[in-house]
């Protein structure tokens, strides 16, 4: 059958387990800003307590260092002896059985993002960030909540050409090798996004099957791009074919696959929290294909207790409403679309098991909507709904 332009082989089902039901978020990205570095431990604890109230136990710190506009590096890694935001989060995670991925170096987008010179330089900066982070947070008494590294370079659903794929593979392999020297078999994660200009899902599957093969990536968190693309309608039709394409590629490469659901909306250029009904449609679009869900991001769009100084009252009230409505719809109640939670096996507790668990295969389960499996070949890929 054909699903939004994806040629499928009937009767063949995905290899790894779909998301355990009831469906809910397992965690969130944390995007640092300078003001957050001034928050007291009590403020962070209040935010993290609210995450725990929603049954979240996973944090992906987006980046520990980032590129400034002038090409210099801004670091969020605090001086040794001073308890910075990352150490506060890690301490809390140790005490409450969270897992934390530490983000490396975030480059600007004013580069040739697949160019050899840029990728080589950025690869080196990623490795340097990992070295500094390990020395700061793990070299003494290690934090047991450390689950792995996150690479903040975001690939996309581009029609990458063979030379670009080769450069990207080398880029990721180099980072994986550097991190392995520093931290052994700790997991390595990336988070591609669904771009506005994109080839068919079949082509994306082919590209990422090659891109992920033998690159050292253990975990892929697909940004559903619903917030960034301002998709308020036809979310399942827009997202599901690409979620399936990434799942197929991840299965072939032995890479774990999670969904990164965007919990914001953009109106007249202003970022605001989305609403719980839209999040429900985002769950529906990705649930058949992924092991877990995280969001970008709880702190900026869902946390009801701590706010940046420049957020206005409407923003704060929107965050509190999304928190309350999400809790009512997905935590106090179970969102189990087909009532099959008893037949689903939850994913392994710790992602660090996956290198470990990146090669695991789970059980087949019933999905929110019909899906079979593979693109037959690129020639049979039709047009897709953008």
Entry keywords:
disordered N terminus, 386 residues, eight-stranded parallel barrel, alpha/beta, disordered C terminus, TIM Barrel, globular, three-stranded mixed β-sheet, 15 strands, single chain, 9 helices
Structure description:
Helix content is 35%, strand content 15%. It contains 9 helices and 15 strands. The strands form 4 sheets. An 8-stranded parallel β-barrel has the order 3-4-7-9-10-11-12-15, surrounded by 4 helices. The protein has a 3-stranded mixed β-sheet with strand order 6-5-8. Helix 5 (201-212) links the parallel strand 10 (187-190) and strand 11. Helix 5 packs parallel to helix 6 (235-253). The two termini are 19 Å apart.
- Helix/strand/pairing category: alpha/beta
> Shape, please?
globular
**Total domains:** 1
User: What is the oligomer described by this structure?
Assistant: single chain
Mean pLDDT: 86
Major sheet details: 8 strands, parallel, barrel
CATH homologous superfamily label? Glycosidases
What secondary-structure arrangement, pairings included, does this model have?
Elements: E1 2-3, E2 6-7, E3 27-30, H1 41-53, E4 58-61, E5 65-67, E6 73-75, H2 85-96, E7 99-103, E8 105-106, H3 116-137, E9 146-150, H4 162-183, E10 187-190, H5 201-212, E11 219-223, H6 235-253, E12 256-262, E13 264-267, E14 270-273, H7 276-286, E15 293-296, H8 298-301, H9 313-331
Parallel strand pairs: 3-4, 3-15, 4-7, 5-8, 7-9, 9-10, 10-11, 11-12, 12-15
Antiparallel strand pairs: 1-2, 5-6, 13-14
């Amino acid at each position: 059958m054909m699903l939004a332009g994806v040629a499928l082989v009937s009767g063949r089902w995905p290899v790894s387990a779909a998301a355990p039901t009831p469906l809910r978020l397992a965690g969130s990205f944390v995007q640092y800003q300078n003001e957050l570095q001034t928050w007291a431990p009590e403020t962070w604890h209040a935010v993290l307590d609210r995450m725990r109230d929603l049954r979240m136990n996973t944090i992906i710190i987006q980046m520990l260092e980032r590129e400034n506009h002038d090409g210099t590096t801004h670091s969020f890694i605090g001086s040794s002896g001073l308890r910075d935001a990352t150490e506060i989060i890690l301490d809390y995670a140790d005490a409450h059985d969270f897992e934390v991925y530490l983000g490396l170096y975030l480059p600007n987008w004013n580069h040739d993002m697949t160019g050899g010179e840029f990728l080589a330089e950025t690869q080196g900066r990623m490795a340097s960030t990992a070295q500094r982070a390990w020395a700061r947070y793990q070299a003494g008494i290690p934090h047991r909540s450390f689950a792995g590294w996150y690479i903040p370079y975001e690939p996309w659903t581009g029609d990458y050409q063979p030379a670009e794929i080769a450069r990207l593979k080398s880029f990721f392999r180099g980072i994986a090798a550097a991190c392995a020297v520093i931290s052994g078999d700790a997991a390595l994660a990336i988070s591609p996004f669904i771009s506005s200009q994109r080839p068919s899902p079949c082509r994306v599957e082919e590209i990422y099957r090659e891109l992920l093969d033998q690159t050292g990536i253990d975990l892929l968190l697909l940004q559903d791009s619903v917030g960034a693309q301002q998709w308020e309608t036809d979310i399942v039709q827009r997202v599901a074919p690409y979620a399936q394409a990434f799942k197929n590629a991840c299965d072939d490469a032995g890479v774990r696959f999670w969904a990164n659901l965007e919990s914001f909306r953009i109106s007249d250029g202003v970022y605001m929290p989305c609403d719980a009904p839209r999040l429900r449609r985002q769950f529906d679009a990705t649930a058949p294909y992924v092991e877990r869900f995280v969001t970008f991001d709880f702190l900026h769009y869902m946390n009801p207790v701590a706010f940046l100084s420049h957020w206005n009252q409407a923003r704060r009230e929107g965050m509190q409403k999304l928190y309350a409505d999400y809790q009512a719809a997905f935590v106090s109640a179970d969102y189990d679309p087909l009532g099959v939670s008893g037949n689903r096996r939850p994913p392994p507790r710790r992602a660090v098991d996956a290198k470990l668990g990146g090669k695991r295969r789970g059980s087949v389960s019933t999905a929110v909507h019909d899906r079979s499996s593979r693109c037959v070949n690129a020639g049979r890929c039709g047009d897709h709904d953008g």
